[in-house]
Each structure stands twice: as structure tokens, then as C-alpha cells.
Amino acid sequence: MSDSFKLPNIDYAALAPMLILFGVACLGVLVEAAFRRFSRARIQLPLALLGAVAALIVVIATADKRTVTAGGAIAVDGPSLFLQGSILVLGIVALLLIGERTLERGGSFVAQAAVTANTEADRAQAATAEGASEVYPLTMFALGGMMLFSSANDLLTMFVALEVFSLPLYLLCALARRRRLLSQEAAMKYFLLGSFASAFFLFGVAMIYGFAGRVDFRGIDEAIVGSPASPVLLYVGLSMLAIGLLFKAAAVPFHVWTPDVYQGAPTPITALMAACTKVAAFGGLLRVLYVAFGRSQWDFQPVIGTIAVLTMLVGAVLAVTQTDIKRLLAYSSIANAGYLLIGVVALNKDGLSSSLFYLVAYGFTVLAAFGVVTLVRDADGEATHLSRWAGLGRRSPLFAAVFTFILLAFAGIPLTSGFTAKFGVFAAGVESGQTWLVIAGVLSSAILAFPYLRVVVLMWLSEPAESTPSVSIPGALTSAALMIGTLATLALGVAPTLLLPITTKAAEFIR
Amino acid sequence: MQPTTLAEAVSFASPTGALSSFWLLIAIPLVSAAILLLLGRRADKWGHLLGVASVGVAFVLGLVYFFSLSGLKNKAVSINLFEFMPVGGLKVDFGLLYDPLSAVFVLLITGVGFLIHVYAVGYMAHDPGRRRFFGYFNLFVAAMLLLVLGNNYVMLYFGWEGVGLASYLLISFWYLRPSAATAGKKAFIMNRVGDAGFALGIFLLFATLGTVQYDEVFNNIHKLSAGTVTAVALLLLLGACGKSGQFPLQAWLPDAMEGPTPVSALIHAATMVTAGVYLIARSHPIFDASDVARTVVVGIGALTLLIGCVIGCAKDDIKRVLAYSTVSQIGYMFLAVGLGGAAYALGIIHLLAHGFFKAGLFLGAGSVMHGMNDQTDIRRFGGLRKYMPITWATMGLGYLAIIGLFPFSGFWTKDPIILAAFNHEGWLGWVLGSAALLGAGLTAFYMTRLFVLTFHGPKRWTEDIKHPHESPKIMTIPLILLAVGSVAAGGLMATSVVGWLEPVLGTHEEGHGHLGHWTVTALTVVVVLIGAGLGWVLFTKGAALQEQPAGPIVTAARNNLYADTFNEAVFEMPGKYLTRALVYLDNRGVDGLVNGLAAAIGGGSGRLRRTQTGFVRSYAMSILGGALLVVAAMLAVTFG
């Protein structure tokens, strides 16, 4: 047996960022076991941040690496390094939000998730107890999984990575300190529907294996021209894979979980999902479609294009009538998935680079947006109903101004990263002849501007109601996260050349 | 036409010595204006002094530069301070030009401006907004100096808009009075009409010649077709008419008297309103190249001078009479610059002389109002000579200057224009000459009426006035100095300024026309004496206190010859109807469409929202449905 099984050659340097993250995550689990509750939280956050920064440094140091390693399971190339870096940077900012403990005693996470919600014990722990510090290793596992997902070079690795980053997220969603029933419901829904989508993905993997006899992307690519098997297997398999990926990307009609989960999850986790999960999901989608199925682009382009149009329009139209800021941002995130799909469907170098740019720009903005949401609170925690935001500009002009700026960025107003990012994907769409998508994108942007501006009007032009909550003074961590998100949104809008050369250089897959 | 000797190319030298800093002329009042307006109330105590001092310093500098320039061989120096608008093919420098024409304007603006600033210290002494007033006043001086010192049309336009802004701010200075606010808006809007023409003229120059620099434009103007040159000239003329209150844009100028009297004196008599004359004189190579445009200019000048005289005869408000007299006198200047050749210089010297005597008359009127509780109706004055001797004497000298009796300045500057009008060839010469002559007679009549009703005859004061008084020294001294100017300036300028301006306007031989020099002079003197005598006889016994019924001509004149009615009927009403129609279309059509679309999206959103039930089973169902559709679509695309 030992003759036929040879350990594949592994380039540890190329895998180092992921290894660091997984290592830190495991270390975090040990910390949970070894230290008392009080000191754990003080150790976990610096540990997690340190790990993420170390991984980021390695990514930057190996930015020129181009290799396929671990027996062809992992590709380290321009896009994967760029996506890893993006996930790490956005993850660090999200960690700052997760680690914030001055807004609420003990942080935004529940101490013991197993206590039945709304009982006497639960109320007691909601008031005083130190929050769960397991969130940090869970977050590290999720981030590591996302990085693996966007670098996976075969379908099985991809599936494993999908589960590695999904399972911690399911758990994290259930850990809100306040409104725990909503939080648990969200986690349950996310888990059930996520499993459902994973099943589709797995089924797709099986189909593709049936067609190509291999699961690595290069092999699939070769099989598309050479395989004797029925192409029905190929197309059904591709559809199923796409469904699994589009679910994570929150594209219509696989978006249904998004508003409920975004609303129910603890807001820092929502921010993490909106920024990092989106990067990972689109990273995976880009790699599968560009590398493995690039040759059948004429077959899937119209289908994915239709999904893009639906996503943009349904997301925008549904955002119009939302009354909860987190649900509003959820639908906005759905519509943004649609804009990103334009870059994906373009299937050219510009499409790839503009999608990469979009992911980073959107990630920063959405982190800042949810950062502001964590600040607007009353005695019961965050006040997310829009009616409570009326007149916020009078009470806290600074944060209302920051949020206004963020909303303008979402609406794609020039001098914000929202404009340059959208311009990039739209231009790539036009260049590859997908003008119809761009028309739908512009229409959708116009519709979507309405709910954004409605919030702006609400904040500045409405009289503050009796019940308008105050904006809490953020601690250093949230302040830093807000500042990074806002400044990045401004910087990428005013000087997109800070990032454009990097995305352009990174926009080349290897097989 | 007279032959012109402007064959050699226009060229500007670089400044040396003291002249290299002539940009200070603009900078000093501008900085002062900024200080006064930005410091706010903190500067209330000393603001007016700074305002006066800055213009005084500018005047002294103006004298220094004037004498430096007179020592130079090439009497035109130009500097480019910085690149102002480098956009594509358009490169405009912030460039200044100091030549004999600019030099005399600088002296007029800063000299007369200084005297009026001093006067305003007294006139505005009790006004709480005095600092703000001086801030605007200095802003005006800076903008006006920029206007005359620019070395390209964009700089000219920059200053042009600057003085327009200052004029608007100062007309509406007492903005709580609805009439002042309205007058400010009226002036602004009517000026926009002219300014739009001016701007189009500049665009056309740039489009055809690719430059807006004076020297490049003038040296290349012969390359343009006759039609283009005429179009440029007429567009510039439209701008000039707007700023100078010439037909058909004259209606704003009398209303502009709502501003404080020093404003009327400086901006709406002595300097800004003559900017149109400056524009035409400065652009003389363009106007020289188009006979059509010049004919339009003389037509407008002659028509406006008559309009101003006729309305001036019928008005009872002392400042409005003077305002229409300004309209009429600028008509003479337009007539002169339209005649071209040697008459360019006549237009400029009449402008300078007018700057002195009209400023003196306005300030005199202000002094009368000051002593009479701000009464402006000349029917309620009378017999003021005894109470205001200095005002009487200085206004008397200004009066003699404007009607043009020997040896006062009007004689030296207006009579030659009448002569030049008669010298114009063909029947047009007779028409223009007669109009100018008639205007002189009418001017003598209405100015005599004004003067006699104010200072002589029985007292017709309102009851609240017990003791009219002479104004304080700070107001009378500028009056005296301006009066001295009215007496002395004419003869001096008629002999020296024409030669001084030669480098800019060229040398010309005097033409020979329909009537000889002495004939015209004699005729003018006779007509003026008839007009003045008639005025004296009719009004020396005073006038009715109320408006009396009158024939159609006087009624028409009282109503400004229906210019406002005409504007209202021809421009305002169609504009209003158009607006209403557009509003209707917008409400019903555009808004209907937009609102309908918004309602449709909102409704769609509400309906779609219901699919978001919150049940995992229906979510899973929708995912399954979507999956089936995707698979089906993929297969359909591939095998369909």
C-alpha cells in the first residue's frame, strides 16, 4: 500500500497564512479550557488580532507567489492572495467590532448560550455576565475557512472549506446577548438553509465527478472538451455548484435567508458576514467559473446574468419598504451581490479585477455601516427600527454625518468608493458585451438610492421623537473600526489608484 | 470715415520699476474689503477709516504709476500674475494691462472714489451698517479696477461681474425695504441679459481666434469674416448696453437709486455704468472692423440720450432726474465711441468729465436730502440756497458743467460730440447731430428745472422740516473738490487727454462735415440758452405740489416711456405663462410618471415582501424552486 500512496509535496510557506489562522484558532480553544472566564476575554482578542495581523504580513510578504500545492488542492495565485489579504483586513476590522466591550457590559455576546432564553437566569446573565469568549476562536476558524475556500483548487477542498467557515458562523449567529430568541431563530434558519445549499453543492460535485472523472479545476477544464460523458451531467452539476455558491453570495432566489439572519445575528457578526463571507463566496464563485468552467461560458453566462438582474432588482425593490435598518442593509447587500455578479459574468480580466476592487470597497463600507448600527441604542440594546432613527442628526451630528456618508457611498455617489467600485464592474460589463446587465444595474441603483436617501432625510430633516435613542460614545475599538471603514471608503473614492494597480496585478488565475 | 493709423501691431511691454507692482491697485482695496467683511462687528469702530484709507492709498499709487507711465516710450505694460484657467485649449492668465486708457480710468475710479468714500463717512455716520457699506464699497473699487486693468476679455468679464455683484449688494443695501430689494434684483436680472451677450461674445472670440488676450485678438481681428466680427461686436455691445443702462436695457438704472446716495454717485453715475463705454473703446479694433456694429452703437446712443432727456424732464424725484440724466449722458458717450475715429477720445473725456460733475451733482443731492429729512421730491424743496450755500454753489457749478456753458467742462466735452455727430457722413449725420443738439437743449431744460425748484423760488417744504441745514465739512469738502473738477477738468482734458490716449486709440485727422466748427458751437449755445431760459421762466415761481394732469407725451415720460410696461408685457408675461405651463406639465406629466413609477415600485416591494414569510419551509421551497429553474434554464440554453 505504501508504494501507491505518496504524500503530496506541500509548500508550507504558501499555506502559512491559513496555517497561522487555524493554529491561532486551536490555541484559542486551549485558552478557553485553561483560563478563567474573566481573563479569557482579555487574552483572546489580542491573540486573534495578533494571529490575523501575522497572517496578513505573510500574505503581503508572499504577494508574488504563484503556485499550486498540496497535491493540486490549493492554488496560491494573484486572486487567492488578494482575497486572503482582503479577508484578513476586513476580518481584523470585524474583530474590532466583535471585541468592543464598552457599549454593553460584557460585550455583545451572551455568556451561556445554553440557558433558555427569556428565563430569570437569562435575564440575569444578560445584565451582568461576561460575554462568551468562544467567539474569537470561532471567528478565526471562520476566517481561516474563508481563506481556504477562496484558494481551493478542487471541489472537495472547496466543500470542506465551505463547511469550515459556515459552521462557526451558524454558531456565532446564535450568540446575541439581547433578543436571543430572534438570534437563535436566525441561526437555526441559517443552519437549515445552509445545509440545504451545501447539499446542492455536494450533489453538484458528484455530477461533475461523474462527467469529468476528476474534481480538480484543471481536470474539469480539460474534460469539458475531452470527456465522452453526457454533457447533461456537466450542466446539471454546474447548476448545482452554482446554487451552493450563490446561496452564500446571497443572490436571488437564494437570498431568502439573508434579511432574517442579518437581522437576528449579533451586529458585529452581521458585519463579519456582510464583509468577509461575501469576499469568500465571490472568491470561490470567481475561481470555479473562471478556472473550471471558463470554456462553457457561453452556456452559463445568460443564466448567471439573469440571476444578476433578478438579484439587483429584487434587492433594490425590497429595500424600499424596509423599516428595520439591519434588514435594509441586508437587502442592500443582496443588491450589491447583483452588481458584483456583473463583474463575475463579464468573464474577462477587467471583470475579475473590478470584482476584487468591489469586494474590498464594499467590505469596508458595510463594516462601517454596521459599526454605526451598534452605536444607536437604548436601554434594550440596539434600536434598529428606522422610526427610532428620526432626528438623529440633531442628537449626534457626527455619527449621523458618518452614516450619511456611508449611505451615499452605498448609493454610488462620486468621491466615495461606492462610485469607483460600481463604475469598475459596470465598465467591465459593457466591455464584455453585457450591456443589458449594466442597464439593469443602473436602474437598480436608482431605485436603491431611494431607501438610502430616506434614511438620510429621516436623520436630518425629521424632528427627533421622544423615543429617539442616543448614540453611545464608542470605545476605542469601535472608533477604530469606524474610522478605518469610513476613511477607506473616502480614500478609495478619491484616490482609487491606491488599490487599482494591486487588483489589476492580482487578476490572473493559475490552473 | 476718417482714415486710421492703427496699422502697426498692438504690443505690450513688461513693466519695470515702480510699475511692476501695479497689481497693488487691485489688491489693496480687495484686502481691505476682505478685512471689513470678514472681521464683522469687531471692525465697526474703525472700518470706515480703513475703507477710505485703502482707496486713498490706491489713488496715490495711481498717480505714481501715471507719471511712471508717461515717462515710458511704449505706453502699455502688461504682466501675467499666474495661470488663471488652464483648461484644454483655453489658457487664460491672470494678466493685467496698464496703458493710457487704463491709467485715466484708474485715476477717475480712485480719485472720485476717494472723495465719495470721504463723503460717505459723513453720509452713513448714523447707519448701523456703515462697516458693511464700506466693505462692499471697497469690493466695488477692487472689481472696477480689475475691470479696467485686465489684459484679456476674461479678466474684463471677471471685474465686470465683480462690479455687478457690488452694485447688487449696494442697491439692496437697505434690504429691509422691499423697494430696495426689488431694485437690486431688477438691476441684477437686467444685467444678466447683457452679461450673457458679453459672455457669448467672448466665447465667439475664443471659438474663432482661439484666444481672449487683447493684443492677440486685436492683431488677428482682420482674419475673421465680416459677419463674425459684426456678431462679436454686437454681442459685446449687448453687454455694454446692460451695464451702462442703454436702450433697451435702461430700465434698471433709475431704480438703482434705491441705494444710498454715495452709491448712486460712485457706481451708478461716475464709474460702473461707464464700463460699457470702456468696453467699446477698449475693443475699438473690433468695432472699427464692422460698420454695421458702429451704426448700431450710434443709433443706440442717440436714441438713449433722447429717452433719458425726455423722461428726465418729467420726473420729480431729484435722484431719478439725475439718473435719467446719467442715462442720457452715457448716450452721448455711446454716440461718440460709435462714431469712431477721433470721437473715441471724445467719448472717454466726456466720460471723465461726467464722472466729476455727475458725482458732484449726486453728492449735492445727497447733501440736500441729508438736510431735508431724506425728502427726494423736488416739488417739496425751494429756497434752499440760503440754508445750504455750499451745496448750492457746488451743485450750481455741476449744473453749469452738465448743460455745457463755456468755460465749464461740458462745453469742452459734449459740444465736440455734437460736432462729431454732425460730421458723420450722409443723412445719418444730420439725424445724429440734430438728436444730440436737441438733447443738449432738453438737458439744459430739465437741469434748470431741477436746480431752480430745489434752490430758488418759494419754500414748499413738508411740515416736519423746520430748520434745513448745511451738511458737515466731511461731506462739503468732497463737494467742493468735485466742483473744482467740474470747472477745471473740461478744458484741461480737452487739450491734453486726447493726445495722452493716442497710443491706445490711434491718431485721427479731424473730419469735415455738414456744419462748421463755429456754427455748431453757436447753435449749441443758443439751444442750451433757450432750454435753460425756458426752465427758469417756467419754474422760478415754484411748481404744483401734486402731479398735474398732462398730455400724452408727459404722461408717457412720467411712466418711463413705458419701458417697464413693455418689459412686463413682452418678457415677463410670456415668461410667467411659460413657467406656469412648465409647472403644469411637470406636475401632471413628469411628476405623474415619476410618482406612478414610485408607487409601482413601492407596491411591488410591498407585495414581494409578503414572500418573505419568515418560515424556513417556504424559504427552502423558494430555494428549491430557484434551483429547478436554474437547472432548467441551463439545460435550455445549452440544448435549446
From TrEMBL, chain A:
The chain crosses the membrane at residues 12-31, 43-61, 81-99, 135-152, 158-178, 190-212, 232-257, 269-290, 302-321, 328-347, 359-376, 397-416, 436-461, 473-495. One of its GO terms (cellular component) is endomembrane system. Residues 152-447 form the NADH:quinone oxidoreductase/Mrp antiporter transmembrane domain. GO terms for molecular function: NADH dehydrogenase (quinone) (non-electrogenic) activity; NADH dehydrogenase (ubiquinone) activity; quinone binding. Its EC number is 7.1.1.-. It comes from the Bacteria. Belongs to the complex I subunit 2 family. NDH-1 is composed of 14 different subunits. Subunits NuoA, H, J, K, L, M, N constitute the membrane sector of the complex. NDH-1 shuttles electrons from NADH, via FMN and iron-sulfur (Fe-S) centers, to quinones in the respiratory chain. The immediate electron acceptor for the enzyme in this species is believed to be a menaquinone. Couples the redox reaction to proton translocation (for every two electrons transferred, four hydrogen ions are translocated across the cytoplasmic membrane), and thus conserves the redox energy in a proton gradient. This is NADH-quinone oxidoreductase subunit N. The gene is nuoN_1.
From TrEMBL, chain B:
GO terms for cellular component: endomembrane system; membrane. It is found in: Endomembrane system; Membrane. The chain crosses the membrane at residues 20-39, 46-67, 101-121, 133-150, 156-176, 196-212, 224-242, 263-281, 293-314, 321-342, 348-369, 390-408, 428-453, 474-498, 518-539, 619-639. The keyword Transmembrane helix applies. GO terms for molecular function: NADH dehydrogenase (ubiquinone) activity; NADH dehydrogenase activity. Keywords: Membrane, Transmembrane, Transmembrane helix. Residues 151-435 form the NADH:quinone oxidoreductase/Mrp antiporter transmembrane domain. Residues 84-134 form the NADH-Ubiquinone oxidoreductase (complex I) chain 5 N-terminal domain. It is a multi-pass membrane protein. The keyword Disulfide bond does not apply. It holds the Pfam family Proton_antipo_N. It comes from the Bacteria. One of its GO terms (biological process) is electron transport coupled proton transport. This is NADH-quinone oxidoreductase subunit L. It comes from Planosporangium flavigriseum.
